[in-house]
Amino acid sequence: MKTYSIALIPGDGIGRDVTQSAWQVLTAAAGHAGFALEETTFPWSCAYYKRTGAMMPEDGIDILRAFDAILLGAVGWPAEVPDSVSLHGLLLPIRKAFVQYANIRPHRLLPGVQGPLKTEAFDILCIRENTEGEYSGAGGRVHQGTLDEVAVETSIFTRAGVERILRFGFEQARARRGKLASVTKSNAQKYSMVFWDEITRKVAADYPDVEVTSYHIDAMAARMVMAPESLDVVVASNLFGDILTDLGAAIQGGLGFAASANINPDRTAPSMFEPVHGSAPDIAHLGIANPIAAIWSGAMMLDHLGERAAAASIMAAIEGATARGIGTRPGKDTTETITGAVLAAFG
Ligand code: IPM
Ligand code: MN
Question: Is the CB of 242 under 6 A from ligand 1?
Fold first, then answer.
């Protein structure tokens, strides 16, 4: 039987709750479709940091490289470990080391879910650059703690990095409704963002069938609220994409529905799948976290692995559950109830 080896990193807080749900659904769907998923769970987290002084072992990246894919819950427990330490010790290095340059985040309403907007007819695919830009980590602080202190953090945009994410976005647009929105702030940031706009125009020449529009990030934020139905694929830099996808999560009814895939399109290393939401310490292990975002991310993982039918069956199972009113509002149903309702499709 075809078997995929999956690295599970449940991480912190509700990351552990929702990863368990997603894994139950994934294995059920795999069983139905006639393939197997073999899991190895890694305890890398803030608790692990407290024990060992690191978020993952020194050879953590080498260990993960052997897997077909990584399923991650959430990372962060700011009361114990500063976020700037925990995220730079686990999530962000994985994205970079495995060249997962495309962070794909779908924003649409599941059946039965009421968003905050009047319109329900939107289906946006945000493509976030995931390895450079504002998250490059280039910078430093001098004269720390004195009145003369200086902090510098520089965005790094490379031609290769910008071109490949735009190309990826154009390919997605071509496979969808043929529209691409490229997001910058080139009216204010005259080097990197003008550079991004130029590359957008250059790559667009190779995709005459795709309708491309450049937007400034502020206008895009308004458009996602006022006219989300006008958008198809939205491509943005690392930080802009981060912000827009929390907005996308909000218009789709909340973070509990927002899935994401950190993709290495060249398949030179494993890709990683994780909900957009964080570890939510306030509701950790209360059994009330919505696992739909994690389960949907798991479906994206199966799709990436080539198991299209199984991925589609999970989406249908999620949609069946929400159409029956289960898991449609934050706090309405328990993690177990929602997981059970999705699992019922594979019963
Ligand atoms: C996300 C998260 C991360 C990010 C944080 C936790 C570093 O907000 O995946 O959207 O900004 O990329
Ligand atoms: Mn985010």
Answer: yes
Which listed ligand is nearest to 130 at the C-alpha? Answer: 1
Q: pTM of the full predicted structure?
A: 0.97
Residue 311: closest CA among 322, 320, 302: 302
Distance CA 15, CA 274 (A): 9
Q: Which atom of ligand 1 is nearest to the CA of 245?
A: 10
Per-residue pLDDT tens digits for 51-61: 999 999 999 99
In ligand 1, the atom with minimum distance to the C-alpha of 87 is: 7
Per-residue pLDDT tens digits for 176-223:
999 999 999 999 999 999 999 999 999 999 999 999 999 999 999 999
Q: In terms of Cα–Cα distance, which of 173, 156, 175, 243 is closest to 213?
A: 173
- Of the candidates 95, 167, 178, which has an alpha carbon nearest to the alpha carbon of residue 137? 95
**Angle 305-306-310 (CA atoms, 0-180°, nearest 5)?**
95
Catalytic sites, residue numbers: 135, 185, 218, 242, 246
What is the tens place of the pLDDT at every residue in 243-278?
Answer: 999 999 999 999 999 999 999 999 999 999 999 999
Tokens, residue 7: 């690295």
Two structure tokens written together for 251 = 């218009």
Task: Verify whether ligand 1 is closer than 6 Å to residue 276 (CB atom).
Answer: yes
Task: Choose the residue to mutate in 9, 87, 262 for probing ligand 1, maximizing ligand atoms within 8 Å of C-beta.
Answer: 87
Using CA atoms, how far residue 151 sits from 72, 132, 143, 260, in Å, is: 32, 19, 9, 31
